[in-house]
Design brief:
Number of domains: 2
CATH topology of the largest domain: Aminopeptidase
Structural class: alpha+beta
CATH class of the largest domain: Alpha Beta
Shape: globular
Number of strands: 17
CATH superfamily of the largest domain: Zn peptidases
Radius of gyration: 21 Å
Strand order of the largest sheet: 1-2-12-3-13-16-14-15
Strand content: 25-35%
Number of helices: 10
Order of helices and strands: HHEEEEEEEHEHEEEHEHEHEHEHEEH
CATH architecture of the largest domain: 3-Layer(aba) Sandwich
Helix content: 25-40%
Distance between the termini: 36 Å
Largest sheet: 8 strands, mixed
Length: about 350
């Protein structure tokens, strides 16, 4: 992957974007897309929509949600400790003893999620997983008055961890789910900018996916595409804890290429053309089966207005919804290559009727 693209990805990952608070990531994505799109706008919901060749046919929507899971300040007690709730699905067992950032109207406040020392817990306490209402954040305030002078109820919170390279093509970061999706659809638009596709292409950094695919629902309604492809992450089964459960979760791995999803949520013409494209371009790919809804932006795109020919391409991801998600840059790059080649194959004569 080119250094400029890696730098763009790093900026997306290092920026905070809990669902409902996507502003910093939205700004980064919008500024980059303005170089490669005919028009870029932000809708009332907060989705960023970048259009290329808007008069072309068919109208294709590419969606990658730019929000991440996180936390929100719920209550500040008399001693100045902060109690919080999750934004989206976070496992409470991984939250204790972590550094966090609280994003206030005045700037960033650093804190730590407190954890009773092991010396002060009896054997039974050590075995228990704390619930969110039993956790707290320590910002070093002496009392409630001091804490409330810098932190407010409703402020968003993220883990204090960003982007880092591991070995080979692997990288680790907080919230690859799904800033890598918004990255991929943005990179697709960049690559299409000089290719002159016959289709009109709307790349969208959607918001609030973690709260029920809300941004994709509103942006798809406004764009009214004939074809809509979501890019999201997909759980791998190539590490301890999952590799012996492939009969339950399938067989996906880092470095195996983009994941092309099949099932009721997916238009079979879109799926077949994605597979044919991958084969023709010698892009490695993996197949995942989804017998019902996928729980991604593809869900709501498919059922917009009179129906959309929907597809779903996954970026293989280890340790989803943790601050240490791991992906392969090669897989991510191949997602954009696949989408570019797919779009260049279609025109107004392509029939997506199942």
């Amino acid at each position: 992957m080119e250094k400029e693209s890696v730098d763009f990805l790093k900026r997306l990952i290092d920026a905070p974007s809990p669902s409902g608070f996507e502003g910093p990531v939205r700004k980064i994505w919008q500024e980059r897309m303005e170089k490669f799109a005919d028009e870029v706008r932000v809708d009332l919901h907060g989705n960023v929509i970048a259009a290329l060749n808007p008069d072309g046919k068919p109208r294709v929507m590419l969606a990658g949600h730019c929000d991440e899971v996180g936390f929100m300040v719920r209550y500040i007690n008399d001693e100045g400790f902060i109690h919080f709730v999750s934004i989206g699905g976070v496992d409470s067992s991984i939250v204790s003893a972590r550094r966090v950032k609280i994003y206030t109207r005045e700037g960033v406040v650093f804190g730590v999620v407190g954890r009773t020392a092991i010396h002060l817990m009896d054997e039974e306490e050590r075995k228990k997983v704390p619930k969110f209402h039993q956790l707290w954040i320590d910002i070093g305030a002496k009392d409630k008055k001091e804490a409330e002078s810098i932190v407010s109820v409703g402020d968003p919170i993220i883990f204090d961890q960003g982007f880092q390279e591991l070995r080979g093509n692997l990288v680790v970061g907080r919230g690859f789910d799904d800033r890598v999706g918004s990255f991929a659809v943005g990179e697709t638009l960049r690559l299409l900018f000089q290719a002159q596709p016959k289709a009109s292409v709307y790349a969208v950094a959607t918001v609030q996916e973690e709260l029920g695919m809300r941004g994709a629902r509103t942006s798809a309604f406004g764009i009214s595409p004939e074809v809509g492809i979501a890019v999201d992450v997909d759980n791998t089964t190539d590490h301890p804890g999952t590799k012996d459960n492939k009969q339950r979760f399938g067989d996906l791995k880092l470095g195996g290429g983009p994941v092309i999803v099949r099932g009721a949520n997916i238009n079979p013409v879109v799926e077949n053309l994605l597979v044919e494209t991958a084969k023709g371009e010698k892009i490695p790919y993996q197949i995942a089966g989804a017998p019902s809804g996928t729980g991604t932006d593809a869900n709501v795109i498919q059922t917009t207005k009179g129906g959309v020919a929907a597809g779903l391409v996954g970026v293989p991801n280890r340790y989803m919804h943790t601050p240490v998600e791991v992906i392969s840059l090669e897989d991510l790059e191949n997602v954009s290559r696949l989408l570019v080649s797919f779009i260049m194959k279609i025109d107004e004569t392509t029939d997506f009727t199942p």
